Amino acid sequence: MIELRIFWPLVFVLLTGCAGEPDVRLGQDVASRHPIAVRDENAVLTIPVASQLDAESRMKIATFASVWRQDRGRQIEMRMPTRGPHDKVTRAQFDRIRHQLVAEGVRGSVHLMRVPVIAGEAPVILMRFTRIKADVVSRCGLWPDDLASASSLSGWDNEPYANFGCAYQTMMAVQTADPRDLAAMRAPIPIDGEMRARALGSIRRGQDPAVGWGTKAPGIGGAGN
Q: Domain for residue 67, yes or no?
């Protein structure tokens, strides 16, 4: 009887401890374990000096201009080699690049720098600007502990492992269209008054305010007609 009096209170204490709230430690959630930082980086493009702009160079310039527009148009720095044997060809190539940038919507944000030609190197025209990028501060792929090892008690505490969530945070940073949204929320857009009036009118008439997106598919027999 004495042993039972001691046993049941002990079981009650153990069960109460299991039912309590878990001790949340710093670094257990994905955001604090692998934080995303918004910082500056250089977007760089080099175009070789040639007699013409080939299709690949034009495509790269168009992509460069598209990234510039998405980043709200920071100043572009262009470095053109001078005092070399191909100054005339370099100048003509620079004009072609500038004309395409203007056609792609880049205006009033280009700073030209003339740099001397380096002997033994092929002359290139370099373009760059500072853009905002979201990136994970920590490095993915770190496995300090062996999760499948039975030689130690590591992993028995039921806490997230070191690399948990790193891939998720990295993809979140890469897929964010405007990294500034991760630092501060956007201002609310104006309310669509016409849409609100239509929805309220439907509710007053006892109708569903949702938009009915109907599709009309042909029958099986008429699909090939």
A: yes
